[in-house]
Amino acid sequence: MRAAVEIAESSGRHVVVHAASAEGMRRATLAGAVNIEHGDGGTAEVFTLMAEKGVALCPTLAAGDATQQYAG
């Protein structure tokens, strides 16, 4: 994952990761992702690490509700 981040950054692009588990979030943070989307399984330790590394979180807040409303 770190190699992918390095390649993206070398072309002027940031990496955003879709991760739901604490381990996926931890790995993405350590690899250099700038943003993690979802983050459902985040722990205090992972969120602390993200804060230390300056990684943003874009949480999924309404997907469950929308699925219930529109999927019947």
Averaged pLDDT: 93
**Silhouette:** globular
C-alpha-based Rg, rounded: 14 Å
Largest sheet: 3 strands, parallel
Give the strand tally: 3
Produce the secondary structure layout.
Blueprint: H1 2-10, E1 16-19, H2 22-31, E2 35-38, H3 44-53, E3 56-59, H4 63-71
Parallel strand pairs: 1-2, 2-3
Helix pairs in contact: 2-3
3D architecture notes:
It is a single chain. The chain has 72 residues and is an alpha/beta fold. Helices cover 53% and strands 17% of the residues. The protein has 4 helices and 3 strands, in the order H-E-H-E-H-E-H. A 3-stranded parallel sheet has the order 1-2-3, with helices on one face. Helix 3 links the parallel strand 2 and strand 3. Helix 2 packs parallel to helix 3. The longest helix is centred in the middle third of the chain and has 10 residues. The radius of gyration is 14 Å and the shape is globular. The N and C termini lie far apart (38 Å).
